[in-house]
Specification:
Blueprint: E1 2-6, E2 9-13, H1 15-20, E3 24-25, H2 34-39, E4 44-47, H3 63-74, E5 78-82, H4 87-94, E6 100-102, H5 111-120, E7 127-131, H6 134-143, E8 147-150, H7 160-179
Parallel strand pairs: 3-8, 4-5, 4-7, 5-6, 7-8
Antiparallel strand pairs: 1-2
Amino acid sequence: MLVWYNDCNIQKVGLILGKLLPDRIFADIYHVTPEFLAENGICALILDIDNTLVTYDDPEPTPPIIEWFRSMENAGIKLSFVSNNNVERVELFNKNLGYYAKGKGKKPFGKYIRQAMDSMGSTPSTTALIGDQIFTDVFAGKCHGLRSFLVPPIKDKLTPFFRAKRFLEKPIISKYYRIHKGERRER
């Protein structure tokens, strides 16, 4: 059994499920607020890009996401990107932002997660990873001691691979909502 942190409640869950269960599920990235992060001692975020912040079709940050970045910066929250998408896509997205950004990030492996924390001067206890996939984003954060937050995909890919992944995520999301009775089911 693994004891893991989740919104000030200690829960015992199986080792594998504990590494896949997000600490929090948000309706979308805009529901992650500087106030929530401050209340939970988080001063740095490692962000997935595609389907977390923008769709795969958006090569650059949209005005609402730039406003969200600015609200985080104004609150002293540091930001970085680790994406499994290609380097060119990530560099284009980050072109006018200047954050640490790594394409071909090989999540759930941790090399670039550690580099992102180093670039922000953060530690696992003060850093959260936010993404739209359990088996890459949530798992990566959990394996490296970060809090992991899940958002639903903005515009999901309908390939057989992604459909299978989303199907396998459903029982984990259901388990999250069973543990967190009373939270609104957003996904």
